[in-house]
Automatic annotation (TrEMBL):
This is Abortive infection bacteriophage resistance protein. It comes from the Bacteria. It holds the Pfam family Abi_2. It comes from Anaerobutyricum hallii.
Length: 221
């Protein structure tokens, strides 16, 4: 994601530092303006950091930091915010690398993943956490027969299983299989070591169904 965003932005606007610090190179609507101002302030601070050797090198050698270098020091939340205020054409180019996702689905994935990342970073309880916003409905929701209330899916939208679905779409196949293997191992460990909660109850609190492992059986579209 870092490399794709920096590549397409640089392709459109050039590699000069002033380009990613220019509000006019984002979707600078009234709704987005405050977010863009905060984003640019974050980017400016990142260009002055002395914590990274490669940032210091580019600043001393070239007098500025290209976005493809700066992107390495940005947090996932910073990248999510930047994607949210990208021009529509850039969002589309990035999202096409994750077909069948569209830019709206990508934006929702990044938003929910950012919130879960923050929960992990702050050491908060993860398995019962729910976001306010939700990921978009995907073909996997239907193929996994996730329960619905009316037209709304009850699982895989704001819960931990939503993160698993997002990873299924965003990670390369081999990487997702490794993530799935480690997740199964961790769930098995908790089931062995924690006596006061059953496996069914644990999975339910995370938004998982018993058949969640079938997520790798289905095509993404």
């Amino acid at each position: 994601m870092r490399s794709l965003m920096s590549y397409y932005f640089t392709e459109m606007y050039g590699a000069e530092q002033k380009q990613y610090l220019d509000a006019n190179n984002y979707n600078n609507t009234k709704r987005n303006h405050a977010t863009i101002v905060k984003l640019i302030a974050t980017l400016k601070r990142a260009t002055t950091t002395t914590d990274y050797t490669y940032i210091n090198y580019y600043r001393k050698t070239y007098g500025e930091i290209p976005l493809w270098v700066l992107a390495n020091v940005l947090t996932f939340g910073n990248l999510s915010k930047m994607f949210r205020v990208f021009p529509q054409s850039l969002k589309s180019k990035v999202s096409k690398n994750f077909e069948p996702l569209n830019q709206h689905q990508m934006e929702q994935f990044l938003s929910v993943l950012t919130k879960y990342r923050n929960v992990c970073a702050h050491g908060e309880r993860l398995f019962t956490y729910r976001t306010v916003d939700a990921i978009a409905d995907t073909p996997l929701h239907k193929k996994l027969s996730l329960p619905q209330s009316g037209n709304q899916y009850e699982k895989g939208k704001q819960d931990l299983f939503a993160v698993v679905i997002a990873f299924r779409y965003l990670l390369p196949g081999k990487d997702f299989l490794e993530f799935k293997r480690k997740l199964i191992k961790e769930i098995d460990r908790v089931n062995r070591e924690v006596e006061h909660i059953s496996e069914v109850e644990l999975l339910n609190k995370m938004g998982f169904l018993k058949n969640w492992k079938n997520i790798t059986r289905y095509h993404l579209n």
